[in-house]
Amino acid sequence: MRAASRAHGIFGRALGRVGDTAKARENLERAIELAEDSDENETVLAMLALGHHLENAEGDYAAYTEALALAQRIGDVPAQIELQAPLAQLAFYHCDWEEVGRLTTPAPSSPNARAWSASCACRDSVRGGRSAAIRHPGGE
What we know:
Elements (H helix, E strand, L loop, with lengths): L1 H16 L3 H16 L3 H19 L3 H13 L2 H17 L3 H8 L8 H7 L1 H6 L3 H6 L5
Helix pairs in contact: 1-2, 1-3, 2-3, 3-4, 4-5, 5-6
């Protein structure tokens, strides 16, 4: 199932690049279905691919929210970081500062809080650059 899921993901991304958004979405959604029969980490990757496609082709961020919930449940920190960045960017566009703060601040009890702070690429830009990161607890 993993190979089939990845193949559908590759076809979906390729079709998206050439402009066939309907077929791209169909293949990316099929990749998620197949990944769900494989394992949760594979499902997160397939959801991330669909999220990227929907963000760029349709301006839809809903797939990121579902993938983030799964990544949090299984403890996939790199995927959480990658998924929170576009969601924080969307919150920034909507001037939802509370959501921006929630998405760019690790839980203080998180064992990965330091890595999270160092890795979240959108944190500094969303919070106003380096000076905001210095004032933020855990900022470098």
